[in-house]
Amino acid sequence: MSISLAISGEIGRIIPTGIFDFSMQYDFHQIIDEAINNKKIRKITVDMADVTFIDSSAIRLLLLLNKKASAIGKSLTVTNCRSGIREIFSIGGFDTILTIR
Hints:
By secondary structure, the chain is an alpha/beta fold.
């Protein structure tokens, strides 16, 4: 698993790849802080196209990012989820909390 942040104008695109689980907590927290603290970023997108698995700790991190972003007026969108991952969000009701496209 790797994770990166690409910035284009006012959009910060967080790009995790592979297995998004507990082992990525430290790296994801760093990316969250970088995206939240960057004053140029107004919109945050988490591009899940290359994520093959997600666990509850990763979902918790997405909820944390959503809460932090919302608190300072930034938007968060989760995009390009594979069908199995999108189903996990739906079953858990997280698709009512997160904007998923």
